[in-house]
Amino acid sequence: MDSASLEGGGEKMSDDHKQVDGRARPESVTMGEQKDLSPDAARLIAMGYKPQMKRELSTVQLVGVAFMVTASWLGVTGGFSTGVVIGGSASLVYGLIIVAFFNIFFVTTLSELVSAMPNAGGQYYWVTKLAPGRLARPSAYFTGICNLSGGIIASAGATVLMGHMVLGVAKLAHPGYVIQQWHAYLIGLAFNFSTFIINMNKDHVAKGVSIGMFVNIIVCAAVIIVVPAVSTSHTEASFIFGSVENISGWKSKGMAFLVGLINANYSFGLIDTAVHMAEEITEPEKNIPKALYLTVGIGFVTAWPLAVLLMYCMTDFDAIVNTETGVPLLELFYISLRRSQAGAIVMMSLLIVAWTFALVALHAYQSRICWSFARDNGLPFSHLWSRVHPKLNIPLEALMLCASLSGILSILCVASTTAFNSLAAGVIIFPSLTYTLPAAYSLLPRNKEIKGPFNLGLFGTVSRVMTICFCLFAVVIYSFPYVMPATGSNMNYVSAIIAIILLGSIMDWTFRARRHFTIRESE
Question: Where is this region: Disordered (predicted)?
């Protein structure tokens, strides 16, 4: 166990990591270790952390991980039914433009902060340095909990979605099959477990990232080219760019449009992925900003054309939305590919493969957040989750914890027919909260000198203000029900998820974390 770990099963800090009033001095490094330090390792030690992860990711692989976790084009396919049903074509087509525009402000904010403070903890670590006085520890703790929750909810949502995709294919191939929600849950668990196993081998993950990025681009191109090319009928431009097909029950089309932005916003969820790989790449202060901007750019270039062309092929709105398969996109494939079962099944199977690669990257993302947060005693039993396996060179226990929590959370799909919508909202709301606090604290006059190589001056300041405004908007708007009137089976459960996580966090803070959650003192 490394010096940042806790001894035994309790919360006593090791000698190299003694805590005074919630603050811990930097971990010690031997003279022999100091001789071999790279500039990246020296910077990390100056922050108060002993390097544990090997910096083996290339910039291309970093972009690949970020692209697959954010998975903007897959987000369009995953939240397709939600956005179209609530706000029509306009909420998806224009929504992607609106959300991508605001994401430029998000990544500018994140890029400036990670350039100044490259640390796998990301947002919660920045808050420890930016927040004033007594606000630093509780603010950082809350940010870390939200960051980890967003990652776990994202993987749970992905497994729920993949389970429904498989059942949709089964229903299309065998019309007599009766879809059961618990079937989707079990299939989702299988995907969860298999991608967890893949993540146990870091070499497999690195290769999977390279292959997965290639597969994602190929499958996206196949859908964009094949589906409209084979389809014998198409919609008019007025439907694609002017339709607000509000069948959600909301009386106001404006409200339906705003709530319907969830699909577009979900497509750019977890945009901070590259930030949490800061200790696995060289020169993170320069390479991570590149990856962040490329994530938004590649995301929009793949997602927007896909959304437009799917709307171009949506010739039978009612049949697609009310399909017996439960997967509107599968029905769209079926109708567009001249009612070919084989064609629709092949296309959906390709999507499932692409989603599997994305889930592999999601496991890597959430486990890194869990591991980095546990280093500072942010979680109960942090001495377990802060370990890095000496042979596998991965945070194995953190990976196991996140996969387990994801599996537990995905059981929500058994209770609700719209479980994915609630989880999609969580993928937006929790990360938004983590962007808000560091952006707000960084605007304080006391922090004006905290700058890295990447700094855009006035535009950076404007970006932080815009980030705060849009994130607060997202937290409020995506907490509303998507369908009216709301019932037990179709309600938006994200408020319940938030309440449970908030209650658990308050209890943990009260009885444990307020004494043991640490802030590292920089040298």
Answer: 1-35
